[in-house]
Amino acid sequence: MFEDTLEKIVLGNRILDYLFALGYIIVGLVAVWVMRKIILVRLKKWAEKTATTLDDFIIRTFQRTILPLLYFAVFYFSLRSLTLHPTVDRIMTILAAVLLSIFGIRFLVTILEHMISHYWLKRADDQGSRAFRGLLPAIKIVIWGVGFIFLLDNLGVEISAVLAGVGIGGIALALAAQAILGDLFSYFSILFDRPFEVGDFIIVGDLLGSVEYIGIKTTRLRSLGGEQLVFSNTDLTNSRVKNYKRMEKRRVLFRLGVTYDTPKERVEEIPKLIANIIKETDNANFDRAHFGSYGDFSLNIEVVYYVTSGDYNLYMDVQQTINLRIMEEFQKRNIQFAFPTRTLHVHKSELT
For the whole model, what pTM was predicted? Predict the structure, then answer.
């Protein structure tokens, strides 16, 4: 009698099949509960002891996305073991596709947010961080839009015409906003490649100044004269930019001239004298000093040394110290600096 009851058909399935499906659900729920209450708890305790935050992120992501899907999977596969009405079967298929798409997109967005917040934003300055956070909602919209299109395609919706319309509209929009998109991509190039940062002193062509702001479309510099210089990001990425903030040391070349009546012994002494002066000067590394050439009105001495910093004020302080020492030593040795002179030779002729 009991066996006959189990073999009785209700809505296309035996009562025994319903019991099996119920058993699958109970076993599945128990397995997920054990995973959540025992395994995840132990993993959390282990993650708290580690220095990295990656394991904490993985556990949180598992709880937010994978765990709900496991609950749904228990019911889905348990009910799929039964013979269902086509309408019910279709509803379950649609529901599975929707939930998989939603949780899949959430999983992707969560990973993207983690990468931006823990890697890119830490390397960006305050303005770059604000720009990234401002673009993040737009990136999420794009991801959700693409995911929605894939969902419609999986549900059998004809989206070719929609995509064609979107593609034509996108091309028209791109052509209309070509300059804006160019500056936007240039902004990302500046942000990721980091040829300069806020506070750097750069030269672009014949214009120079300190970087004040790096925006999505424009970058602003403060010139030495005090006025603000505004460049489009495309102009900057297409130009040769000199970044003096990245200068680790500064090469200095200068020349000085002494008069032609300076004795040969003194001329030989000058390079050694200048070398000793530079070696005794702080923050300066001597390279070379030579009697380099004959000028129109002077014997030219060429000197090269390095300042151990890219700071311009420090360079001027070092150069001033060297100039004063050279002047002092030249005065002691009665060596005369040359200056533009002209000698006139007058020939007296006899009058006849």
Answer: 0.49
